[in-house]
Amino acid sequence: MVEIAPFSGIYYNKEKIGNLANVMSPPYDIISREMQEQLYKKHPYNIVRLILGREYPDDTSDNNKYTRAAKLLKEWLEKGILITSKKPAIYPYKIDYEIKGSKRTFSGFFVLLKLDPTYKQVKAHERTLSKPKTDRLNLMRTTNANLEPIELLYVDEKDEIMKKINNHISNIEPSIDVVGYDDFKHKLWEINDEKLISSICEWMKDKILFIADGHHRYQTAIDFANKIREKTGNKDENAPFNYIMVVLANMFDKGLAILPTHRLIKMQIDLNKILKGIEKHFSIEEKIFVREDYRSRSIEIIEALKPKDKEHKFALYDGNDRYYIFTLKNEDILDETMPNYSETLRKLDVTILHKLILEPVMEINETNLEEHVKYTRDNEEAIKVVAEGEFDYSFLMNATKIEELRDVANAGEHMPQKSTYFLPKMLSGLVMRKIE
């Protein structure tokens, strides 16, 4: 059973901050070192100081980015920089944005979700790595807070829940209305209507949820709860540490988009070896770039990548004035090479890339993946970093479909790392929650 609950959210105090856009930030995992510095300079109370603080050479176990975040959170609450809602509430959230010339509005709502350590009601489609989990666990343990939400999807083909919420907020001004780092318009409301909240909680009970963004933080919350339980002996299933702050959204929300995540390869391997290694299973088409600049070249590749019917296509770029389009010849090979995978997982482009190219031809597997493979969602960057010698190759991909994510998660399987990239990203700093 899926159990959700309202909570008393923590906001930035508009009276003390002024323009709230100055204290917001992207999610921690897409903040570069350069962006971190920009956010530090932007405002002394920017949330980056909590979610991704600076590290210093003389950091110790008693004075580090985690302990400093905890100290700042406490200070900001005491000074009234941050204020807490008086009543438990849910927080409707809308993001107006534009992608590829199309205007969209994402709709969801902040709420507490009871953790499901068995992953029976909450489905994951990606495996987690130990380093990010340790980082987020340290932050959660020292701050005793959920500073950013994770995003989960539910299936509501009639969009009943958001219709109820939209009816309630249609004549209410949002509590927060800011333009974020992404130039997207982020709006947040507060609803403490007990009848409406109760109906939403009841409706959600028999649903299945799918993690869209935040696999590491979800598992971190489970680990955090386990550690508290072991330490205190508190077995109360409704204790605050058994819940996590999330944003829930309809899987079929028209404002939800999935972008491809391209693979950047750092490995000295001869191009001819790659081409020779894949020719049995892929047709190979060599194409010469028409234009010179990175952006135009990325557009050329993306256009050439568009699949017909159910084609599986990839683009390989090696830094020269040409690129290669690989198209799988026959899906039968997928049954032979991946007999233990479900049909959906076998036919994912990311799975095919990893199992038929990266592993057998380039000898990149789970043990050395982090050493040789980095990721980008930026088409132009996938060209630029190879052309300028930072990486040796890039594989450009088509996006995973939302239905594929659902089917893989339902089968209890996991996609390769970074198989999905959802837009829009949640803005950090809108609302937080103390675990108490």
3D architecture notes:
With 436 residues, the chain is α+β, with helices and mostly antiparallel strands. It folds into two domains: 4-256 and 424-434, Conserved hypothetical protein from pyrococcus furiosus pfu- 392566-001, ParB domain, CATH 3.90.1530; 261-398, no CATH class. The protein is 34% helix and 23% strand. The chain has helices at residues 14-17, 33-42, 48-51, 65-79, 130-143, 160-169, 194-204, 215-232, 271-278, 294-305, 332-337, 343-346, 349-358, 369-372, 379-387, 402-410, and strands at 4-5, 10-12, 82-84, 91-99, 102-114, 122-123, 145-146, 150-154, 176-179, 185-188, 209-213, 243-250, 257-259, 262-265, 282-288, 313-317, 322-328, 373-376, 393-396, 421-423, 433-434. Strands 1, 4, 5, 6, 8, 9, 10, 11 and 12 form a nine-stranded mixed sheet that branches. A six-stranded antiparallel sheet has the order 15-17-16-19-14-18. The longest helix has 18 residues, at 215-232. The relative contact order is 0.17. The model has no long low-confidence stretch (mean pLDDT 94).
